[in-house]
Amino acid sequence: MKRALILGLGKSGRAAAELLLFHKKNVCAFDDYLDLKEALRLEELGLKCIPDFGAICWEEIDQCVISPGVNPKHVIYTTAKDRGISIVTEVGLALPFISAPLIAVTGTNGKTTVTLMVEHILKASGIYAKAMGNVGMPLCSYVLAPRKAEVLVVELSSFQLETLDSPVFDQAVVLNITPDHLDRYSNMQAYARAKLRLQNCIKERGSLFVHEKVVERFGFLLERNEYKTLGFYQKDLEYFSSVLYRECAEHERENALAAWALCKPFGISHTQFTKALTTFCRPPHRLEYIASIAGVDYYDDSKGTNIDAVICAVRAMKGEVILIAGGVDKGSSYAVWKKPFSGKVRQIIAIGLAAKKIQQELHPFVPVICVDSMQTAVIMAKKLAKEKESVLLSPGCASFDMFCDYAHRGKEFQYQVRLLRDGEI
Q1: Which of 322, 374, 386, 398 has its CA 20 to 30 A from that of 215?
Q2: Which residues form the Mur ligase C-terminal domain (predicted)?
């Protein structure tokens, strides 16, 4: 009997395994970093864990479910592709089982915030919505959950979109496309093409919103004619009060505008929207204020994992900034920071594997000090920062050299700041 092969047993891989096993499919799985405890639990449900590549019986495999973090160059991925085996992501596996209206959100930056913002606004307006995909519960887990939502808001990364092409979404938005994941994609055009696969996933009467800057740079990749341009200076802004417009930073206004475009088709009024927006709490590790110590404010923007996100974070700060940046390099040049950092970032404290590259590309335009731990970075920032300045953690890099993920990195930063505040370091 044919089997489904799951590559990667993280959160989404486990959810895919459970859905396939529920439907009595024979399932095997491979993970480069297999958690033995979790493997034993899944084997009790009927999953067969494969210890190494050579143990895969390819003649038995008719479907390969790829976890989003798996590189397309992985030997199992390429072998499945070369053999003509059907390749699907966890999201793609779940979608045929879902009948609720679907909203899709993608972009380099802001997609989690917009996804959660739309969920919050719909809920506050009496529509039971649920955030899914790259944030919250995997879609395969939702399929097996007893309570169903009226609307699903699905955050999608470029990785999840690489194999997705079914017209399933009622509303969708591409927020922005800026340099990221260039360690995975050969160039920006390849990265943009992956993001814009979303255009092939919209229902015939559905709506696709694309930010005007994306249209300007990558419009030649837009094959779908029926899309709506989303931008600051359009008439859409009449739906926002002048107070809201003045008080929000630029990227927050863009997020709100995208959320409005996605919520409006569900009958949400301007009054409902603006009222709900005032009670929305930004998710953690996104320009999160932590403490004020000796007149210096400390902010955690650990989710700032690419070049453009750091620029946005720096622009949002009042006064000059001591920036803590670095981690696992993602293939972009840090030299683009020179102009936006001028007169704004007084010092960079670099951590992680990318520290030396940051120093080489920015020093002496911006002074860069390399340190070997988050604690040392926070202590150094305290020594350098002056009253009315800000210390900002916005790494511009992945976290996997020193931390489990961006949340772990942010929590460690917050812990060290609180130790500093309490005089313990």
Answers
A1: 398
A2: 285-395
